[in-house]
Model the fold of this input.
Amino acid sequence: MSLNTAIQWSDDTVNPVMGCSVSCELRPTQRQIEKVTVDFFHDEFPSVDLDLVEAAVWQELGKFNSTETFQQNREIAKKISAALDGNLDLGAIHMRAMAYETTLKMHMVCYAHQLHLRYSTDITRPSKKSNSGYAPQFEQVTKFPGRMAQAAGWPDLFGKIRPAKPWLDFLPRLIFVSDMGDSLSPEIGFEYLEEEIVKIVTSAAGTRHLWLWLTKHPKRMAGFGRWLKDRGRDWPQNLVAMTTVTSPRSVWRAEALQEVPSRFKGLSVEPLWSSVELPLEGVDWCIVGGQSGDGSKPFDLAWAQNLRQQCLVTGTSFFLKQLSSNACQNGQPVKLHDRHGGDWTEWPREFRVREIPAGFYEYRTNLMFRAEESACSE
Done:
């Protein structure tokens, strides 16, 4: 849970579930990591037969998951190097181990996973005291009941000024649900989601806020919507259904989101790795951003311009979150001091667009109007 999050498009975050067991483009499967590792060491030892490289890699990686592989990546690299060439000196092995770690970091860019690596258990340090607020390991999806209820009790922000985020002025409190895990992971039953999410956001305290629920499993989110309907329950008006798109390969998520029976829908198009064409009909909000951190993939501002034009056609609100630490325009790097590229005072003026769906402003007004009508009819 995080009050006053630095994330530009929300006030706060809350996680009824921590961790995610399903790999995605931000956190590859262990099989994909094995392939990356084979490619790395085959490049390092081109004279060694590929079959021998694969055997050495699988000998070391076959018994671990992605978290465990990363935690001991340098030791793994040293063992593989020694297996492929027993004559290497320690200095060469050490340099190769550091290069292998950098390679893994380029493929394992999920921020939630990175924080779990820092705060959860560590296979290389059995005595490490992990943070009880995290899943024991990112792959071990863990429930944290009661967090949503605590967040529902946070003070009302409707009509208030946000000095650090003026684009959110006057809105209800915007709470980002599931930034450190995916509540729609297969291990989480719909009964838990109804109890911990739906009942809370529709409570007297919860209805004061707007809840931005993000998942990389929009098909399962749609299934949850059908499950609620079968039980005579509507999707809450203040529960915004959202999913992530990073490239043309994940546009299917935006298509699947259309099946969620929510009043509001949003897309988190970040980190954006290429130009995309999105199905934006019925989508209220399109949040766009490049990748941040060391080794970030390029973010071409033309991709953001393209999405802005698509949003204008469908009337979708466009929100440019950050330009990334590797932004470029017309083939030239964009020089920024903010390593995330999130300080919009540094951007070209035409890119300073952070729109909010009109329905977000109207939600509380309509709620109060219905309450007055109800009172008058009694």
